[in-house]
Amino acid sequence: MPILSFNDVTIHLGGREILSPTRFEVEKGEFISIIGPSGCGKTTLLRAAAGFVTPSGGSVSRQGKVITGPSREVAFVFQDYGRALLPWRTVEGNISLALEAAGVPAGQRAARISKVLETVGLAAHAGKFPTQLSGGMQQRVQIARCLAQEPELLMMDEPFGALDAMTRESLQDELLRLVREQGLTVLFVTHDLEEAIYLGDRVIALRSNPTPQQPSLAAVIDVTIPHPRDQLSTKEHPDFLRPRRDLYHYLGHD
Predict the structure, then answer these.
(1) How far, in Å, CA of 251 to CA of 254, rounded?
(2) How far apart are CA 186 and CA 157, in angstroms?
(3) Which terminus has fewer CB within 10 Å in the chain: N or C?
């Protein structure tokens, strides 16, 4: 059974159809990139999968059960890492927040916090406050907080969009390492064609202003680039350039 199923999901906002009936499935352990122009419904689709938004039509199911609200099995990484972190809590305190919400006993929190900080390379910064960290480090704290939940699904809404190019590439590689080490299932929204292909096992391409002739779901493209991937050789690989060209064709006129 797929871990996640989008069953003809339709979303209307402000009296306008943002997303026409959209259907696809996500298998356990897959990394799915979702790409498309602004206003095509990428983030809204992600929020529907997380239980934050109720579809106007159709449904989203997790392991066969219709999603009706947020779940502790789903963690969400937001684009605005500055707002996602509490400035009056240290790195350790921000990660603890997820464990407190989940009802993890106080005596068990320290070990889990230490483990995830080690995983994302922030063990030496546990006592710092968000304002003492770079943007990339703040985003790693948010990712660590999500990992502390031990989620089945990780939803990521343009998490690297506000970062400089070098930090972005570094976090892309770190994310791929975490996904492979922990067997995570990821839905990742981005505007960046290259990021979508570099990270994804499949890319879901959405178009804006859907019509019956041109529905929201423009394409589903398999990415066959082998792992491990790296920023130089992977982006010169024919299996990287081919889907890049195809996606540009599907989305280039939006």
Answers:
(1) 6
(2) 11
(3) N
Name the phi and psi angles at 220, rounded to 5.
Answer: -125, 115
Residues 173 and 230 in one domain: yes
Please check whether residues 135 and 180 belong to one and the same domain.
no
Quote the tokens at residue 5: 């199923």
Q: Are 202 and 4 in contact (CB under 8 A)?
A: no
Domain holding 143, by residue range, is 80-150
183 phi, psi to nearest 5 deg: 65, 35
**Tens digits of per-residue pLDDT, 158-177?**
999 888 888 889 999 999 99
Of 114, 133, 150, the last residue of a domain is: 150
User: Mean pLDDT across the stretch 214-228?
Assistant: 93
- For residue 110, CA distances in Å to 99, 100, 105, 200 come to 10, 12, 10, 33
Per-residue pLDDT tens for 98-132?
Answer: 899 888 899 899 999 999 999 888 999 999 999 99
Assess contact for 133 and 141: CB atoms under 8 A. yes
* pLDDT at 253 exceeding the cut of 50: no
42 and 105, same structural domain? no
Same domain, 204 and 129: no
The rounded distance, in Å, linking the Cα atoms of 25 and 217 is 13
Its sign, for the CA torsion 148, 153, 199, 46, is negative
User: Which whole-number Å values give the CA distances from 181 to 212, 237, 238, in the listed order?
Assistant: 42, 24, 26
Residues 36, 89 share a domain: no
Retrieve residue 161's tokens.
């969009």
